[in-house]
Amino acid sequence: MRPHYLEHLADLGVAYLHPLERAATWALISALDLRTGQHVLEVGCGTGGTMALVAAHTAVSIDGIDPLPIMCRQAQQRLRGATYKAQTALYQASGLALPFPARFYDRVYTESVLGFQNVTGAEIMLRQIYRSLKPNGLYVANEAIWKPYVTSAQAAAIYARCMTDFGISQASEQAWSLQDWLAAMQTAGFHVKTARRLEDVVAKSEADTNIRAKQGLFAAPEVNWLRRRLHFTPRRAWRRWQYRQRLRQHRADGQLIESYLFVLSKPDDY
């Protein structure tokens, strides 16, 4: 099934498609502990919002991948022509098959990508990221997971409805708890440095200003930078109205997820 809601958001140039939006992204960038000259990879770069922030502030070499052609096009448009400290490159590819050599990156990060995967997809993506990291490299993930009391039946039902209405879900098909995710990360070979709730990481004042975003991807995101460059056509307006109706039906789902900032390291004896 195609992730048609993501294609709609990409068409509008929307960035920061995760709970707590830009505030969460700044927390992730801080946790990456970037150094000049490092090689960095974003898996699921979307329209390039986070890549642009990283590139504007740190002299690294950063690659972004996304499986959706429209996301790659919008990211290219966002990054083109601006003056950045970093070198940037974009590739249409999946996190399930990273087209890069082993031990190539110092840092890898994801935002609301790993948490959408089913069991098989999560295990494959973690192994791919682990393979691509240098020893002592860091993987930092801002991801939405189900709250501990969510049952397997609840998770499966919400997942099925979201896939029908949006082509993508808010969290994984399986009702994995925090401990389940940590176990999967450790099985892939990672050392878990920290796993903290995003609301505890982000300053309270910033979190309060983004309270609407706690529902995650399905929180009716605002149209941002690209809107000034688009003619808001009847087609776009109609699609936006349709999705807003569906979003209202899924509003309660957001109360069943919570976001964590995971900081993982690859041991140096790999």
Q: Notable features of this structure?
A:
Rossmann fold; single chain; 39% helix; 7-stranded mixed sheet; 270 residues; alpha/beta; 10 helices
In short:
With 270 residues, the protein is α/β, with parallel strands linked by helices.
Hey, roughly how much beta strand do the residues contain? 15-25%
Say how many strands there are.
7
**Residue-averaged pLDDT:** 87
Distance between the termini: 37 Å
Major β-sheet annotation: 7 strands, mixed
Order of helices and strands: HHEHEHEEHEHHEHHHE
Helix content: 25-40%
CATH class, anyone?
Alpha Beta
Low-confidence stretches: 207-215, 220-229
From the 3D structure, determine the CATH topology: Rossmann fold
Shape type: globular
Radius of gyration, CA atoms, in whole angstroms: 18 Å
User: Helix count?
Assistant: 10
The H-level CATH homologous superfamily, spelled out, is Vaccinia Virus protein VP39
Please give the order of strands in the largest beta sheet.
Answer: 3-2-1-4-5-7-6
Itemize the secondary structure elements and their pairings.
Layout: H1 4-11, H2 21-32, E1 39-43, H3 49-57, E2 61-66, H4 69-79, E3 87-92, E4 105-111, H5 119-132, E5 133-146, H6 152-166, H7 178-187, E6 191-197, H8 198-201, H9 204-209, H10 234-249, E7 257-265
Parallel strand pairs: 1-2, 1-4, 2-3, 4-5
Antiparallel strand pairs: 5-7, 6-7
Question: Could you describe the 3D structure shown?
Answer:
- This protein has a single domain, classed as Vaccinia Virus protein VP39 (Rossmann fold), CATH 3.40.50.
- Strands 3-2-1-4-5-7-6 form a seven-stranded mixed sheet, sandwiched between helices.
- It is globular, with a radius of gyration of 18 Å.
- Helices cover 39% and strands 20% of the residues.
- With 270 residues, the chain is an alpha/beta fold.
- The longest helix is centred in the C-terminal third of the chain and has 16 residues, at 234-249.
